[in-house]
Design goal:
Layout lengths: L3 E6 L4 H4 L13 H16 L6 E4 L3 H13 L7 E3 L16 H8 L1 H9 L11 H21 L3 E6 L1 H12 L3 H5 L9 E5 L5 E6 L3
Parallel strand pairs: 1-4, 2-3, 2-4
Antiparallel strand pairs: 1-5, 5-6
Helix pairs in contact: 2-3, 4-5, 6-7
Length: 206
């Protein structure tokens, strides 16, 4: 029984490079981002990982990362389910803005609160708690049953949707998860017990 869950944040996007708030906007990967995604697949292949099913968001940077990984592990045609529940946190009115410009408009302290508080959303957007409110039920109903059946499951998604999921998986508080960084293109491998608790965790650093 494998009961393995692999989480990977998409590779660097064009807007990551430009220091823009991205959210539900849909820029593609940079050259580095493509390389990060392919490297993630190579590390997973070297670790002997084969997947039974993959999940990703509706955003192209996550979908492209997912496909690069599947290509590298030799499973290019694996069943892949795309769902908005795994989308990045919606940054509302901040989306598309340079982070420095946002600080000039709203003030450094206010922007920091929006970025780093657990439950304060930016104007027209989502807090991390709001993001979790869609990620957690989707994971419980659509993803976790595959894992608990003994399958090996890939989720290629985003920094905040994955942080929301990691918070639930590891039983972290809102404050604790805010300190957790999820690096681009770095696979996190969880082995779960039959009761869905974590048996082991491994981070495949480059």
């Amino acid at each position: 029984m494998s009961r393995t869950l692999v989480l990977v944040r998409h590779g660097q996007s064009e807007w990551n490079l430009k220091n823009l708030f991205t959210g539900w906007r849909d820029p593609g990967l940079t050259e580095l981002g493509h390389a990060e995604a392919k490297d993630a697949g190579k590390r997973l292949k070297a670790a002997g990982i084969k997947f039974d099913i993959a999940f990703t968001s509706l955003l192209s940077r996550a979908q492209t990362t997912c496909q690069h990984i599947l290509d590298e592990v030799g499973q290019p045609d694996l069943e892949t389910i795309r769902d908005q529940a795994l989308n990045e946190r919606d940054y509302g009115e901040l989306a598309g803005l340079n982070k420095d410009d946002a600080r000039a408009k709203w003030g450094k302290e206010q922007v920091h609160i929006w970025r780093r508080s657990y439950d304060v959303p930016p104007p027209g957007g989502e807090s991390l708690r709001d993001t979790g409110a869609r990620v957690w039920p989707y994971y419980m109903h659509d993803v976790q049953p595959h894992v608990l059946r003994g399958e090996t499951v890939l989720i290629a998604a985003h920094g905040n949707s994955l942080r929301a999921l990691i918070m639930a998986l590891e039983g972290l508080s809102g404050e604790e998860i805010l300190e957790r960084e999820v690096g681009t293109g770095i696979p996190i491998i969880y082995k779960l017990n039959a009761d869905s608790t974590i048996a082991s965790k491994e981070v495949l650093q480059g």
